[in-house]
Amino acid sequence: MTESHAIESHQHETRRFPPPSDFASRANVTPELAAQLYAEAEADVEAFWAKQAATLDWMTPWTQVLDWNPPHAKWFVGGKLNIAANCLDRHLTTWRRTKAAIIWEGEPGDTRTLTYWELHREVCRFANVLKKFGIRAGDRVAIYMPMTPEIAIALLACARIGATHSVVFGGFSAEALRDRINDAGCKLVVTADGAWRRGTEVRLKPAVDAALEQAPTVQTCIVLRRTGAKVDMQPGRDHWWHEMLETVSDDCPPEALDAEHPLFILYTSGTTGKPKGILHTTGGYLTQVAATAKWVLDLKDDDVYWCTADVGWVTGHSYVVYGPLANGATVMMYEGAPNHPEPDRFWRIVDRHGVTMLYTAPTAIRAFIRWGEQWVLKHRLDSLRLLGTVGEPINPEAWMWYRQVVGKGRCPIVDTWWQTETGGMMIAPLPGATTTMPGTATRPLPGIGVEIRTKDGQPVGANEGGYLVLTRPWPAMLRTIWGDDDRYRRQYWSEIEGVYFAGDGARRDEQGNYWIMGRVDDVINVSGHRLGTAEIESALVSHEAVAEAAVVGRPDELKGSAIVAFVTLESGRSGDDALRAALREHVAREIGALAKPDDIRFTDALPKTRSGKIMRRLLREIAASGNVVGDVTTLEDFSVLEKLRADEA
Ligand code: 6R9
């Protein structure tokens, strides 16, 4: 691999955790089945995916498994199915009709449980409401809602009639909502008066009102009453959810939709430019999310499965709604903040509802560590049997903490690598079969082709860093960027010839485990050494005083880039020069002198996206010039930025 393209890895990890034998023997994927799945996928990958697709209910069988016309794929060509029927109707002919589909807890502590029967009925009724307002297959519907059961109902109602949903996270501004509505040309918006977050009301309807002033395609707005706040209802355009439900029947046969029918658009921000509308379709998407939920999350009928992601993110689409419900699982949903009224809210929920699986993000785990383990230890948590993470590289020390303090050393951890664009999990352990190590998502799932390449497309050797690419089409892959197929080709299929460019740096070890080093734009070039920020951050986080760290490069005449680390400390610790020196030494010991931060800045909080990813781009700008000029619409808490700027001045 050429010098300029190498990303060097300095992480050494030797802790290994084979699956506990009692877990392995009862897992959906036992070691024997895992070997068989991998062998089948290697022998004939199309036949392998066809076998997974065949576990769904199809209204018309497909005639061709894959039509691959790079970079465009069609899966299960000619087949027809309905996703809502697969997530709901087919369970009604079994004992699951009375099983809890959703157990929901609001932030104020109110709860609701919907059985599969009840959820099906609500979905049919809401689908009829959509039809009443003229929504037909192919029309786009924007969903801007709190985490209540109705957001799942809205998604499934769209899927039932073939309307393409575009969920916009409820924390986004009116402008962000307006741009997304206009880009997709939505005809209808589903929203709520507001939501509860940290004990206060986040108002949603006023943002919709502002957005709709400049959204000419929207004819109708349906408003769920959640907080009871007073809202302005525009006559003719705005209607209450509960009033509309009274006007329709609960009979709504599912549409037979083409396997390639557009199921949803979900906007994801690039580092530059306007957000990309990632388009996902029907048959391949459900095939992969249903299969991976079964294999990796090990969903069983007696589980209470909790993925803490908001439905506004892809994780919420694939692993709160579609994947688990296709498996007939019981899904836990929670409306509010993890630290309301106190930092043990998640653990209260686990004990209160007997949650068996927790799937959350590294950013949440680092927050729990910062709040202190006493909040976790107050609760039993003995119902838990499996833990998962997604969204960012997990620092090995955070992984160990999750395993010991939350999982009591008993629960396997599945670190799952995937993207909005991949639709479903791509690299992840099979918890009954794969030996895990802190910090690696382990191996590609059966049927998934992953390689590490140089920028010129050359393969690299074991433990050499490079660019993570996907070498063959997969069923849940994005089909295009809505309205901009050129950008789809450029962004994903032109960076490295012939393969999908994921935008992540990674290395593969001798055992075939993949270690994600972060986004490639998060790579720092120090004196000709390209270092992944994730490793330096993990080294910092492994120091007992550090809660969270974000590392960026600052242009430096001598070295190319200097390493600047923004660090938040464990509660009760204060940052001073002695600690700075200690942290620099610590990084030198963990990684090497080369990775020693030139500058360490202590801060109360790091700027994060609303989905919890650290916005290193902003920190880069602050490190370089003390100011931020780029787009900040995805920033969660603007005051963090103000503070960082003030510290700089
Ligand atoms: C599902 C989701 C995708 C980016 C991805 C990568 C990072 C996600 C990860 C991970 C290391 C993991 N990422 N999971 N990095 N280990 N287990 O998060 O989708 O919001 O589109 O983000 O997140 O950088 O490229 P999305």
Share of residues in strands: 15-25%
Cα radius of gyration in angstroms:
24 Å
Number of strands: 30
The unreliable regions are none
Bound molecules: ligand 6R9
Strand count, sense and barrel status of the largest sheet are:
8 strands, mixed
Average pLDDT score: 93
Helix-strand makeup class: alpha/beta
Q: How would you describe this protein?
A:
- With 649 residues, this protein is an alpha/beta fold.
- The protein contains 20 helices and 30 strands.
- The strands form eight sheets. It has an eight-stranded mixed sheet with strand order 12-11-8-6-7-14-15-23, sandwiched between helices.
- β28 and β29 form a beta hairpin.
- α5 packs across α6, α10 crosses α11 and α13 crosses α15.
- It is globular.
- The relative contact order is 0.11.
- The model has no long low-confidence stretch (mean pLDDT 93).
- It binds ligand 6R9.
- Ligand 6R9 binds next to α11, β20, β24 and β25.
- It is an enzyme of class 6 (ligase).
- Belongs to the ATP-dependent AMP-binding enzyme family.
- Keywords: Acetylation, ATP-binding, Ligase, Magnesium, Metal-binding, Nucleotide-binding.
- Its cofactor is Mg(2+).
- Its EC number is 6.2.1.1.
